[in-house]
Structures are given as C-alpha cells and as structure tokens.
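forwarding from the other thread:

> can someone predict this with flavin-adenine dinucleotide?

sure thing
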Amino acid sequence: MEILVCIKRVPDTSENEIEVNRDGTDIERDDLVYSVNEWDNYAVEEAIQIRDKVGGSVTVVSVGDEEAEEVLRRQMAMGADKGVLLSDDAFEGSDGKGLATILKAEVEKGNYDLILTGAQADDGAGQVGGMLAAMLDWPCASLVNFIEVVDDKKIKVGREIAGGNQEMYEVDLPCVLSIQTGINEPRYVGIRGIRKVASIKIPVHGTGDLGIAPEAVGEPGAKTKRLDYFVPELGEGAEILEGSTDEIIDKLIEFLKAKGGIK
Amino acid sequence: MARQVFAYIIHKDGIADDTALEMIAAAGKIDPDASVTAVVAGAGSELASVCNEVASSFAEVWKIDNQALAYVNAEMLRPMLVRILPERGIVLIPHDHFGMDLAPGLSIKLDAAYLPDAVDFEGIDEGKLKAVREEHTGQVSTHVLSDISEGAVITIRPGSFKAEESKSSEGNVVDKTAEAMEGGLLGGARRFLEIVEAEVGDVDITKSDILVSVGRGIEDEDNMEIVFDLAEAMGGDVSCSRPIVDAKWLEKSRQVGTSGQTVKPKVYMALGISGAFQHVGSLKGSPFVIAINKNPRAPIFQVADVGIVDDILDFIPELTDRINDLKSA
Ligand SMILES: Cc1cc2nc3c(=O)[nH]c(=O)nc-3n(C[C@H](O)[C@H](O)[C@H](O)COP(=O)(O)OP(=O)(O)OC[C@H]3O[C@@H](n4cnc5c(N)ncnc54)[C@H](O)[C@@H]3O)c2cc1C
C-alpha cells in the first residue's frame, strides 16, 4: 500500500502560552516550542503500522517553509520512508482550499492508495482532508479512530461520533482519511533516530514542479483570510483566588463546603 | 432579494438537535434580512416528525426522504445537497462530528468559500463576511474575512449562538427528494456497516455530583494517584479530558466532552485542563466550576467560577491533606 500522510509544524499548545503580538498581526512566535501537529503524529503512526502489516511505503508531506523540514525529518525518524516539502513564496496565505490544491498536485505525481491527514491542526479548521478528497473525487472519512485493511481494494474504518460511540464503514481505495487522536499509541522518537535521518535529502516542490498557477493558491486564491489575532473580552471569568497556598486552600474549602464539593 | 441561507438540521430519534435554533440566530447575525430554510435529510416517520418540529421555527423546510438516508452517511448526502442547493447560497452546518465529515468537501463541490467553526459574525461588507474563530485550542481568537459572494459553506460551533425562543413560524415543508435523487444515488464508495456502542465503564460519571477532572497537565501516568486521592477525600469521582484517554491512563467512559460523556455534577474541578470547547461544551446543569491551571490565560478560566493559578502537582496533594485533616478533626 502506498500511503501519503499530510503533516504540519505547529506551536505545541501543551508546552506554550500562546499570546498575541503587539499589533495583533500574529501570535508571539519568539520562544515558541514547535512540534508536529498532535493529530498528524497519530496519522503517521497509523500509516507505519499499516505498511508494516501489508507492505508498501509511507511518504510524509508538508506545505510550509524550510522549518517544516524538521517535522518531516522527525516523522521519517519515526519510520516514514520518504519526505517531501512543498514550499514556495506563492503558497503563503493559502486558505484550506489553497492547501488542498497544492497537496492535490503532489498526490497526482505519485501513485497513492491511501492519504491520511490529521483531523485538525492548530487553527481548528479540520478542512484539508475533506477538501482534498472532494477535489480528487475520492471517498473520504473524517475523525477516523480505527483502520483495518480488508484487501487491496477496500478498507474498514471506524469514525468517532458522540458519546464514545463509533460508526463503521467499508471504504473503497484510493481514499482520504482524517485521523483522530487515540487511534494508536505513537512511538517515541529519540534523538538518535533523528540523527540517523539527518543527512537524507528532502525534495522541495514549488509551483513550477507541481504545475500550479500561483494565483490559484496563496493569498490571491484565498476566499477566507485571517485579518488579525485578538484575545476576546469575555465577561468576568473566574474569581482568581490569591494569597499563600494555605490561604488559597482555606478559601477553596469554604467554597467546596458551600457548594457541596465535600461529602 | 433577501439573501438565502440554508441550515442543515442534525437530528436523532426524530428530534432536531439544539443547533437547529442556534443556526437561526447565527443566520440573523450574518444578515438580519436573510430568509432561512431548514434542510432535513432522513427517512420515513422520523424524518416527518423532525420536519414538523422545525417547520414551527423556519420559514421553509426542505426535506430529502430516502431509505438510504435512514442513517445519514455524509458521503451520500453531499451529492444530493449539491443538486438541490442554489448557486451563491449560504449553507450553515453545525461544527460537530457530522458537519466536519460533510462540510469541507461540500464547499469544494459547490465552489463556495469555506468558513469553519465560526463562533460569531460581525457583518457583511461588499460581499465579505467578517467572522470570529478561535485558534490554538481557544487560547487566541481571530477575525476572518470570507468572500461569500459566490456562496459559502459555514460551520457553526455548537453552543456559540444563543437560540432565540423559537419565533413561531408555519414553514412550508417542500419535498426535494426527486431533485436530490436525479441521476441516482452516489457516494457508494463508503458504505455504512454499523454503530459500535461505547463500552460501559466501572463508574458512571454522568451520575456523579462531584467530579474531579484531570487533563494533560498531570503530565505522567504515575501522577494520576494524587487525583484519585483528592477525589476520595472530596467524596467524588475522577473524570478526565481526552488526552488522558488517548494515552490510555483512564477508560473512555470517564472522558468528559463531545466525543465522551455529557455530565451534570454540582461541583466540577478541572485540573490541568485547558478548556477546549469540545470539553467544556459537555458540562451541563451549571455546575460550580473550579479550575486549577498554571497558565493564567487558559480558556478554562473563562468558564470557571473560581480559579487558582498554580502547578497542580504541588497543589493537589496539599489540598487533599487539608480536606482529610478537616474530616478527621
Ligand atoms: C472532534 C473532536 C472531538 C473532541 N472531543 C473531546 C472530548 O470529548 N473531550 C475532551 O476533553 N477533548 C476533546 N477533544 C480535544 C480537545 O480539542 C482538546 O484537545 C482537549 O480537550 C485538550 O485536553 P487538555 O485540556 O487536557 O489538554 P491541553 O489542551 O494540552 O491542556 C493542558 C493544560 O494543562 C495546563 N498545565 C500543564 N501542566 C500543568 C501543571 N503542572 N499544573 C497546572 N496546569 C498545568 C496547561 O496550561 C494547559 O492549559 C476533541 C477534539 C476534536 C477535534
């Protein structure tokens, strides 16, 4: 099975406090810790497990600047066979459709049976997988938390729905799946693994290589554009308890008693 | 002519989801003069009762009635919607597990702008809709401008728009099935098999009055013990956010959130939980919420009644000790 996994380099929200910069044009990016998008990491692990079971190869691809190479390399250290970076000044400011357009061009250069994306990334949009499938006219399933290869024509997938329940489908190949967290337990990637793949060359494809008209992507092609970042003023929020830990606990215990929080 | 807005109605067991009325409110914020049509897909008597229900709040109801939609498969529904929706329409869809499956591809097939997970709208200017979204699990918000002049598919965050007390309407139910089926059933490359129900766990957190809920801030499986100790001291049960279940530190039945359980405790203590909408959206019955988080800007403090900015690994054991002292005194 030839598998392509689309990945993104994002600020790690569990490691960072995200703040808006002074003029609201961006988040404060100095000192941010970046990593591969959590959902994508599960997608790569799943791809590797499928390949190890039925054979084939795993390619990881990212649209981004040269810094995205670091996450491609990390996922290659994890076990992906190849990495491709899609990078061009013309890609900057792409909306979901722009990103799907770029990825589609790369998909068409290969011979893939299965494309995985994360269910969503740092912008919470969850759009690229579904758009890519629609452009390719391939079947699609989102929020996938189970995959079983039936044969070389079809797979069985589970989709996560409300209440911890799961929808099961049979899907014809080739198809696009967006992967939900928890589908597997992604393996650990050590510094030694990363060193091993450090010298592998990662090809970079731009508009020319992909045969994309620059105005179809990036800022000019985008129908949905981000204007600014801000922190909303939302009501009063919580009453923050202050003082020494002892004083805070005193106050908290009073609240707990009053509200039935101690039985 | 008034702008045409379509609201896709999610329903279950013959009853429309809460988001049905929320989308009327959302449409009103996009354009106060918009005429809003409900689109309902399904089969048989369940579908009929949903149509009846929403006809009392929408000006018009379009129904697609086909046995193949008895369990709605987004891949089959999408081509039908493409056949019936007019050009340049605005389509609203709830941003939940179903909307996320249907909407991105629909925007491509309609050649419309896509605006995912909108939480607010700030008006239209020269064909461009200004909307509010959140990024980085709600830590920051953004304004986005979407060119809706050629149509748009917009997913609406559940719970973000206050449903107006249903303005009573006597909407027409228009049967769109024939038009939706013209050219036959598509989407057969993804075939529905069955629903696998969640496993029942050892505690039923939906019945607990006191929930001590733990998130990724607990950092390590070995630290879970201090959470159970606190819950025991308080006389409550331990629940959690999704990453704790993903890491297999607790069973799925303890997960609070849209893909887990909806809970209605009296007291909810959120420990090292950032406050993503998929988590806090499932806290019902206005519990008293206490949040403990080392990040003073964590969105959980917006929904909490009382907040403590501290490291939970230090704070929890001290709190547990004090409660135990109190009880033995
Ligand atoms: C379709 C879909 C469905 C989902 N369903 C659910 C669901 O049902 N339930 C759910 O919970 N999530 C759900 N999610 C995931 C959700 O979007 C968030 O990713 C998740 O809720 C985050 O969990 P968290 O708050 O524990 O982790 P994080 O967002 O990583 O937050 C950890 C928090 O802990 C704080 N922290 C770290 N260390 C410490 C410390 N030592 N002391 C104090 N504080 C500390 C940090 O400041 C941070 O605020 C869903 C997502 C999708 C896409």
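Chain A touches chain B through 82 residues (CB under 8 Å). thats all i got for now
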